[in-house]
Amino acid sequence: MTTMHRRGLLFGAAGLAAMAATRRPAYAQAPAGPFTLPALPYAPNANERAIDAMTMEIHHGRHHAAYVANLNAAVKDHSALAQMPVDEILMRLSQVPEAVRTAIRNNGGGHANHSMFWEIMGGEGGEPTGDLKAAIDRDLGGMEKFRTDFNTAGTRVFGSGWVFVAVTPGGNLSLVSKPNQDTPLMDGGRVLMGNDVWEHAYYLRYQNRRADYLTAWWNVLNWEKIAARYEAAKNGTLRV
């Protein structure tokens, strides 16, 4: 008798349906508070060439939702912080009350990083054009070198973290790696794009093969969105 058949005898059809439901990731609603969970701008399976739908659902609906809920809890008794955009809070992290600074660093960083992450995917990969391509050629050595250096930086992140392209108001680009949910915003910079190398971002499909995940991720980038972020960074309107 198979394990599933024995479970069926024990729990019945209703029990099996309930068990199946517990394995299906809940698609979270935005947590209540001044900060909200942005909706995915595409279906969870839109990035299948690099990231499976279940990972997208869990990553967005559980991990990112938890960062937002925890950030709301951290600012609950700090009305000034509750009225500030998250990127401005992170750029002034040293001024945040010490009692909530770590919670805001971790959860505010997680909220900002993931909001950027969803935005720049859902595309067809390829390469950028125009001013963004010119900036990559100028500052990062061209696309081939950029991809290689970016992936290398991602594999070298010890434990959990991110690899970013930071951008200055003048449009200059640089590669930056950060641990945990830290972000170039904490150094006064802006984020053009970045990839999440926490295991929850890739483990269902890739297990310990982070390098394969980093390589596949380029196939789902939306270069139009990234180019729009580049222009916004130069004109001072880029948020997270």
From TrEMBL:
PROSITE patterns, alphabetized: SOD_MN, TAT
GO cellular component: cytoplasm
Cleaved signal peptide residues: 1-28
Root EC class: oxidoreductase
Keywords for the protein's UniProt record, in alphabetical order: Metal-binding, Oxidoreductase, Signal
Manganese/iron superoxide dismutase N-terminal domain sequence ranges: 35-121
Keyword Glycosyltransferase among UniProt keywords: no
Keyword Signal: yes
InterPro entries: Mn/Fe_SOD (IPR001189), Mn/Fe_SOD_BS (IPR019833), Mn/Fe_SOD_C (IPR019832), Mn/Fe_SOD_N (IPR019831), Mn/Fe_SOD_N_sf (IPR036324), SOD_C_sf (IPR036314), TAT_signal (IPR006311)
Regions that span the bilayer: none
Stretches of the chain forming a coiled coil according to its record: none
A Pfam match: Sod_Fe_N
One Gene Ontology MF term: metal ion binding
Binding site for Mn(2+): 59, 114, 196, 200
Manganese/iron superoxide dismutase C-terminal domain mapped to chain residues: 128-229
Catalyzed reactions per annotation: 2 superoxide + 2 H(+) = H2O2 + O2
EC number: 1.15.1.1
Similarity comment: family membership: Belongs to the iron/manganese superoxide dismutase family.
Role: Destroys radicals which are normally produced within the cells and which are toxic to biological systems.
Name recorded for this polypeptide: Superoxide dismutase
Annotated organism of origin: Neoroseomonas oryzicola
Organism lineage string: Bacteria, Pseudomonadati, Pseudomonadota, Alphaproteobacteria, Acetobacterales
